[in-house]
Structures are given as structure tokens and as C-alpha cells.
Sequence to fold (313 residues):
Amino acid sequence: MRIAFCCTGTAPEPWLQGLSSALPGAEVQVWAPGAPQADFAVVWAPPQAFIDDQPGLKALFNIGAGVDALLKLRLPPGLPVVRLDDAGMSVQMAEYVCHAAIRHFREFDVYEAESAQGQWSFHKPRARADFPVGVMGLGVLGARVAQALRTFEFPVNGWSRTPKNMAGALEGVRGFAGANGFHDFLAESRILVNLLPLTADTQNILDRNALQRLQPGGYVINVARGAHLVDDDLLALLASGHLAGATLDVFRTEPLPAEHPFWGHPAITITPHTSARTLRDESIAQIARKIAAFANGQPLAQLSGVVDVSLGY
Ligand code: NDP
Ligand code: OXD
Fold:
């Protein structure tokens, strides 16, 4: 079996070694134009030339959860695309979002600024009930985040495309679904967490019309994709005082350009697309297990993380 590795911005050697030892007998190589035809590919944001050069692929394995960059390419009809299913990302995302929500709710950002000035001052505790958190996207990451926020006793709302059974992992989360449920979901939320995939339906979803529906003093945590958020609308609602702040991990252009007004904004916390990193060992183990199962005749549809290309996630 031949596996082509084509991951933009990723040092290949440890992946080649890891995949080779997890799949003894497989020939794993970095793709270069004209390379022999591979059976499977492990990819992150590959060029169109890679897809065009490898018409014999049986499946593409994406080394991230989001497939928006991959689905911008012209893929052969019916070519299965498999994304990472958690692989150690959901716990990182839960840490990141809980940290950002709690930092805002408990005013740790204010205490940090005051202590830097040598100031010892108390703030009146705020009521958790006044900080309902809305999680957009209740998939692998969103569900874990909603669950983690519940353990801190925040009121949590969740919004997904299709209605969810709120028992089990989503116990205690108030569910909203579809375009019809969106405005009610926003009106019931003050802290907004975005964990949607970037698709034709969700691009620019965090615009003025949506963000102004959040409760006054709203706070935005965007950990999905920069193109979900209309930057100028966020800035305008921060300026008007309707929004109190934002923690942003993802941006329309990454790295965030030096001249972007988000830099240095007193109400915006920036991190460099690091909320949930791809963990190499977990990801190699997951991908190798799926390639082996598929190669042994298990239908791909039985494996987790198979993307519905028509929906875009
Ligand atoms: P999933 O596919 O498991 O979950 C997607 C969720 O979004 C589902 O609940 C789905 O609804 C919902 N959804 C999709 N379209 C719509 C819509 N039009 N309206 C309402 N809800 C919708 O994805 P993951 O949880 O694994 O990942 C989510 C995203 O997080 C990724 O696509 C990626 O962009 C981002 N990400 C960011 C990282 C970072 O470091 N910043 C790291 C990893 C991922 P339903 O359940 O009904 O299908
Ligand atoms: C992902 C990401 O989609 O890293 O996995 O953003």
C-alpha cells in the first residue's frame, strides 16, 4: 500500500516515521509532482496540483478537524474525505474555552491589569446566572466544550443544524437547532462560543445582525474559523458598548497582519490559532487505524469522521 503525505506547513519526517511504524508494509512518502500513484493520502491544505496528480486515491485523510481548505479544491466526485475525530483536540478546546469564559466572567483580565499597576482592589462577585454561554456547533468539539462549561455551573445553550437529544453528554444544556432556532439561541446567550465548521451556510455568520442579538455586555469566543466573523461588525459593537470583549484564536488572514485593528485592542485577546492543536501521535494512531480498517474491507461509512462533502463538514 502506498501513502502520499502532502501537508502544507508541517514537518514531514516524524509523520512519515509514525505512519510507517503504525502501518508496517506501507510505503509512506512525501508527495512531489509525478510521484507514483498512492492509495491513500494524508493531507493538510494540499495544492490542487496534488489532487490532479493523484487520480487513483481511495481516500483523503485530513490532519485537522476542519476541512474547509480541502473542500475548496476540485476533488474527484465520490472521493471519501476523512477528518480528525477529536484525536486529543476536544480536551484542549474545553480548556481554552473554559479559560476564556472564566477569565471574563471572574474579571481575571481586570485583576491582571490592576495588579500590574500595583493595585489591590476587589470587585463585587458577578452572578453566574447572568452569564449564559451559547455554544454554536454541538459536534465533537462543541459538545465537549458545552459539557465542560456545565461542570462550572454556567447556564449553557447549544445550537446545531439538526436537533439533538440533550440527554447523556449534553445533560443540562438547552438545545436550539436550525435557522429557526438561531435568534432565540442568541437572545438567551451572553458569552458566545463559535465551534461551527466553515461552510457556505456559516460563512460571516457572526455579523452585526447576529452579534447585536446577544445579551448586553456580550462576549465572543471564536475558535472555529476567521471567516465566520465579520471583523468590522465586532469592532463596531465593541465601540458601541453592546459587546464587552472577545477572545479570538482564528482570523481571516493568518498570521493576523500587523496592521489589523484587533492587535492592541483593549477588549480583544488574541491567540495564534492554538486553541486545539493537532497532536501528532494521537492523529497518526487514528489515521493508521482507519486506513488499516478500510484496507481490510471495512466500509468507510462505518468509521468516524467521514465528511459529508455536500454539507461541507
Ligand atoms: P463537527 O463536524 O463534529 O461538528 C460541527 C457542528 O456544527 C455540528 O453540531 C453541526 O450540526 C453544526 N453545524 C454545522 N453547520 C451548521 C449550521 N449551518 N447551523 C447550525 N449548526 C451547524 O466538527 P468539530 O466539532 O470536530 O469541529 C468544529 C470546527 O472547529 C472545525 O470545523 C474547525 O473549523 C474548528 N477547529 C478549530 C481548531 C482551532 O485550533 N482553532 C481546531 C479544531 C477544529 P449537526 O450536529 O446538526 O450536524
Ligand atoms: C483544525 C484546526 O481544523 O487546526 O483541526 O483548525
Summary: The two ends are 27 Å apart (CA to CA). The longest helix spans residues 89-105. The chain has a mean pLDDT of 98.
